[in-house]
Write a structure and sequence with these properties.
The complex is a heterotrimer of chains A (541), B (184) and C (50). Chain A is mainly alpha-helical. Chain A contains 17 helices and no strands. The longest helix of chain A is centred in the first third of the chain and has 36 residues. In chain B, strands 1, 2, 3, 5 and 8 form a five-stranded mixed beta sheet that branches. In chain B, strands 4-10-9-6-7 form a five-stranded mixed beta sheet. Chain B is α+β, with helices and mostly antiparallel strands. Chain B contains two helices and ten strands; from the N terminus they run αββββββββββα. Chain C is rod-shaped. The relative contact order of chain C is 0.07. With 50 residues, chain C is an all-alpha fold. Chain C is 70% helix and 0% strand. Chain C has a domain of 33 residues. Chain C starts with 5 loop residues before the first helix and ends in a 7-residue tail after the last helix. Classes of the chains: A mainly alpha (541), B alpha+beta (184), C mainly alpha (50). Chains in contact: A-B, A-C, B-C. The interface between B and C is medium-sized, with 28 and 20 residues.
Amino acid sequence: MNDSTAKNLALSHMWVAFSAFILACFMGEYQVLERSGLFDSLSSPSVYFASVSTHGVLMAFVLTTFFIMGFGYYTASHSLKVPVWNPKLAWFGFGLALTGVVMAAIPLLTGLASVLYTFYPPVQAHVAFYIGATLLVIGSWVWCAIMVVMFYQWKQANPGKTVPLAMFATTANAFLWLWTSTGVALEVLFQLIPWALGWMDTLDPGLARTLFAWTLHPIVYFWLIPAYTAFYVFVPKQAGAYLFSEEAARMAFIVLVVFSLPIGFHHLYMDPEQAKGWKLLHGLGTFIVTLPTLVTGFTVIASLEIAGRLRGGKGLFGWIGTLPWGNPMVLSVILSLLMLIFGGFGGIVNASYAMNAMIHNTAWVPGHFHLIFAGTTIIMYFAIAYYLWPVLVKKPLFSKSLALVQLWTWFIGMSIMTTPWHVLGLLGQPRRISSVQYNNLLTLSWEPYELLMILGGLVLLGSACLFFYLLIKTQFSASTEPFEGIVEYAEPLHEVKDLPEYLNDFKLWNKVIGVLMLISFGIPILQFFFMDTYGSSGWGY
Amino acid sequence: MHIDPLERKWVLVSLGMCALFVSIIMIDALFHGVNAPSNVETIDSRKIHLSEEFGEDNLGVQVAENGEITVRMVAGRYAFFPKEITIPAETKITFRWVSMDVLHGVHMPMTNMSTMIVPGYVSQVESSFPRPGEYPMLCNEYCGLGHDHMWSKVSVIDKEEWDASRAASKTVTSDTIDEEQNNE
Amino acid sequence: MNKISEEERQKILESPPVGTWILMLSVAGGMVAAWLFLYYGVFLSRGIIN
């Protein structure tokens, strides 16, 4: 089968993703330097907030969405052994999303959209920012549609057969994104754009925050699922053994998708526009969604244990040492899981209802999401890139040892940067400030941590540059001999027999999601239309 | 469907761990008054200067007849008004917050006084401060280019000092009234 | 790397992942301890919230 379309789609999307990434990394280091207050010449709130807004959009929306789409197109085609459905539509979606990015980038880079990647009103950006963001989301919906079509076409052509796990996970993610993005789409289409265009004088910021909260939690699972996909379908094979339990993997993906959605109010615990009954309900749901991650940890580590024992590891923990630490995919999962323990714990603290007050909107929050997202998730994106690039460009990975150095330095830099960040939060430093000095003794305790964060950021920037360098060298080095890379999926330890249809399809789960969303968001959103609310007009910054 | 017995046990352990956290949270929420601030009340942020409750003369610390303390504050670019307040330690204090312009958030470091302030809504949170001291009140949500210097001061004084100064001012008032009556 | 016999290999594939079990229990134990410390030692000691 000629899979050049799938490969070209994958490469194009991933180059956009990683170009956005490297640009945003430089912005990140500028930000930690500016914020520390140690370099007067850098001090500038307007540049700082333009940088934070751009950095956030590039990392949270561009790097992620494009990587996920590229990885998805290749996985769908390769795992199902079919060509990508409707390539013209796929390229149209790519073009639309990229147009959106450029359209949003212009106001972002020129300081006309310094509203941060959460863009909470009534601080208002130039309308081109909101329209650009909309086009990016609509482009991603094209990807979702293609994934779902390919899933169901394969099922029709292969009745009674088990959908390959890699595509099951990818399609789960496509459905998740459709449900997730609806919240922010409603906010942008019915509130922000008409308001920014002047068609609406005012909007209700409470409703806007509620709609954004719909999206804000499940979007992190949209980002995380490709990392978990690699955990299950690539890692066990690369470690030299088998996936411990395919059924557990499928259940984990389903529970992740279903329960990541109706829980957004843990982002609104300190907000006045929602009552505590709803907050407690969403809090309960948030604890439920920790379970598939805890199970994923067990399944992946058990798969690694078998691999390590097959390689001669003895005793309770000897298998850890005998794993192939020199394989980038295996090293990545080990480092990713280490960061998941601490990042996941931080998430549990955030989810704990009233205890959220201890860290709400403090520096703990960006510390947490850099550890869990920039750490746990993105290191797996690197691993997937190192694994796929040789296959996509038909050349060997430029240097495996440099790849290992890059992964280690990413982990070390992330640990150095996020640990003080969490501590600063517990010491009460707010987030989203452009400088950390206040005329108060309590705040003096923050200073040593800022230096550590500058150092961590420098290590990360170096690591990011090395990653980008490795991709370029792999793709553009002159090739001396023909090279065929292959992508191999892990086999389950126990053959999957009589898999129940609910672990092979999404019709039931979409209905469950619909019901849960109605319960969790129905009244909390409808209430705004029955209360006497007062709108806010647009404010500059 | 085959699930390994140890993995099954792990699912139970995970459920147990989450159940522990959820129970502590629920019991404290339902029976011990440990809750996220959740008073849903709307207000017109464009007219707070004209409102009875949040007009300038009514802002700050107020003690009711029965000793209950309410603090009314307005958040606006770039400070919290009134900019300096004094409150007693180890006492329940009800804060009521409104915004005059955009989204703000406020917290006092090392305390549990934390809330979002959304234009169009009144945020109400009950807090207490075990340790006396000079605390900053910091804005923690992006509200514009001056967000990093949006703050105000809170003096938390010893409960004894607070009670003593309130008793003293009551005596002064009643002395004044006696004097006036004697002079008539 | 040692070459293992088919018999040893089968044994490994069929035995329960005890190392994983102990690791995960330790992680869970650590999280419970850390959460309780933060909840009672830091959060509640900072005052009322309602």
